Amino acid sequence: MARAQWLRAAVLGANDGLVSVASLMIGVGAVNDGPRAMLVSGLAGLVAGACSMAIGEFVSVYAQYDIQVAHADRSNNDEGEEDHSLPSPGKAAAASALAFAAGALLPLLAGGLVRPWKARFAAVCAASSMGLAGFGAAGAHLGGANVVRSGARVLVGGWLAMAVTYGVLRLFSLAFNTHVSSA
Questions:
Q1: Residues sharing a CB contact under 8 Å with residue 20, sequence separation 6 or more, in sequence order
Q2: pLDDT higher than 60, residue 126
């Protein structure tokens, strides 16, 4: 059971990395057609996201541990008693960071290997779509849910995140360019 929870958390973390970095790269691609800008934004998203996931997981596990210790103290249990159901905060942090980075590598590598803007944009979208469907199906399998429905839900959710990011940054770019031109 604990192994399945770790695997499910890894799949969800990888999915977060994929959606975040793909959306970031596509959003930057909406305003800058240079390969370096997309690649740098993807790499920055990978590093920042992995750090954020690690810190968040570390704090979350410690907070849960503190809650359980306080509860045990109120219940007059042995103060030295530990709950072994919680993972090590360091291991949980490392696992979250690695899972996020693994997912983030998919769009980053797809976009980093293609030079022309349209092909790079398509490669990021295609690789991300395959990853989203795969992560959705894997998460459903581990959780005992409908694989097709879950895969489709994750895919559509990822597409929505990428489309919204592209649209917002494209509108920003158009508004900014209009403002700069009229100044």
A1: 45, 49, 100, 104
A2: yes
